[in-house]
Each structure stands twice: as structure tokens, then as C-alpha cells.
Amino acid sequence: MFTLFLYSTALVLLAVSWKRSREKTRAALRKAWGSCLGVLPLFLGILLCMGLLLSFVDESVIRQTVGRESGLVGVVLSGIIGSVTLIPAFAAYPAAAELLRVTGGYAQITMLITSLMLVGVATLPLECRFFGVRAAVLRNTLGLVYSFALALFMGALFGGV
After folding, report:
1. SS3 86
2. Residues with Cβ < 8 Å from 110, sequence gap 6 or more?
3. What is the mean pLDDT of residues 6-29?
4. Which of 44, 52, 92, 143 lies in disulfide reach of 118, CB 3.0 to 4.6 Å?
5. Mapping DSSP to helix (H, G, I), strand (E, B) and coil, where does residue 157 land?
6. Of 10 and 64, which is predicted with more confidence?
7. Which residues, at least 6 apart from 23, have a Cβ–Cβ distance to it below 8 Å?
8. Alpha-carbon span 140 to 90, nearest angstrom
9. Among candidates 73, 139, 69, which has minimal Cα distance to 111?
10. CA 110 to CA 104: how far, in whole Å?
11. Buried b (16+ CB within 10 A) or exposed e, 57-81
12. Number of CB atoms found within 10 A of residue 8's CB
């Protein structure tokens, strides 16, 4: 129902925009389409990787590694995976939803997503160069602490830790 509300609102606002300025709306739609086409290969690649992972790796292995039964070890492992992986948010959220469906581990998937967004081991050298070593390490450390605290909260709320 909420999705229907969002789509309806978007269509109404698009109609208002079209009525106010057809040229600007047309240009915005062209730009949005180009942006969508630019993101599509990456998005499909992530979904393909998730599909291959779920088809080649047994679900019980995934559940044992980062599922509800994995407990605190799964939370830490999810944090490590999230910290070193470089995936944009628009592709990470559907992948996390699928992992949550398979594993049922709210704490583990929370840790994976938050560390994926807040901690960047792969980008740390670049951050150090632009912001300084102290600021980059502090930002990543605080992101990891926040991710862990949020994962523990979600684990306490939904179980699994």
C-alpha cells in the first residue's frame, strides 16, 4: 500500500512538473533515464553475483556463517565483510534483503549493511590523503563502533545474538 502511495505521489508531481514546464521535465526525464542506464549494469552485476552465491553455496552454510544461528561470531564476520566490500547502497540493500530472507539474522545483516556504508577499508588510503590519518581512522573506527552497537540493538530486539 505504501509503495502505491509513493508511485502515485511521484506521478502526480511529474504531472505538475509537466504542466509547469514541459522542456525542463523532458530534460529531467532524459537525465534520469541516462542515470538509470549508467547504474543498471552495476545493479545487474550485483544481483547476478547474489544469485550465483545463493545457487552455488548451500543456504545452510550461509545461515551458519552470517545467519541468526551464527550469533556474535556472525556479527563480527559480517562487520569484516562489510568493512572491506565496496558496493553502492542501491545495490547493497536488495542484496541484504535477500540475505535476510535466507538467513533471518537481523543483527548480522544490520552489521553487514551499516559497516558497508560507514566503514571503508578499501578507501582508507584515499581518506587519509584528503582528511589526514587521524580523521580517517577516527571516522572508520566510530563507524565500526556504531555498526556494532546497532547490530547488538537489533539482535536484542529481534533475537540472534
Report:
1. coil
2. 147, 150, 151, 154, 155
3. 95
4. 143
5. helix
6. 10
7. none
8. 21
9. 73
10. 11
11. eeeeebbebbbbbbeeebbebbbeb
12. 10
> Which residue from 159, 60, 145, 143 is spatially nearest to 109, judged by alpha carbons?
159
Cβ(146)–Cβ(114) below 8 Å:
yes
How many Å apart are CA 75 and CA 151, to the nearest integer? 7
Cβ neighbours for 10, distance < 8 A, ≥ 6 positions apart: none
Give the whole-angstrom CA distance, residue 105 versus residue 90: 21
Which residue has cell 580517517?
136
pTM of the model: 0.72
**35 vs 15, 29, 60, CA distance in Å?**
21, 10, 38
Distance (Å) of CA 69 to CA 45, 47, 80: 29, 25, 18
pLDDT of residue 13: 95
Q: Percent of the chain, pLDDT > 90?
A: 53
Chain centroid, CA 11 distance in Å: 27
Of 15, 40, 41, the C-alpha closest to 29 is: 15
Give residue for cell 556479527.
75
Half-sphere exposure of 114 (CA within 13 A, CB side): 22
